[in-house]
Write a structure and sequence with these properties.
Layout: E1 6-12, H1 26-45, E2 50-55, E3 58-60, E4 69-79, E5 83-92, E6 98-109, H2 127-130
Antiparallel strand pairs: 1-4, 2-6, 3-6, 4-5, 5-6
Amino acid sequence: MEPGMNFHTRKWVKPEDLNPNQSLFGGRLLQWIDEESALYAVVQLENYHVVTKYISEINFISAPRQGDIIEIGILAIHFGTTSLTMRCEVRNKLNREMILTIDKIVFVNLDKDGKPVPHGKTAISFVKDRL
């Protein structure tokens, strides 16, 4: 597990999340990851106007089953001028078994017209530090 990785979001694998093999459908997991990454980017960049630019190789390690509780971990690893790069790990909440890793998810900070704009951030910030 990556040091500093924050596992905030938990999901319960339900019947509607399953593929024909009766394990978690990979597309559903990627939807959850993209949503969690977007929320992380919005909070870090303090801007609702962000978009997914790039997702690197996705490494599926194990397949969650119905009833499993999984947790999604996101960590900012690089702040570009207009971008934020994150790492993602997904693991089983109860037994800590690794489910998936993604080395790079890149989001771009946009202005109200949808054009990339510098965000001015250089490091991870925590909401409590801004209050």
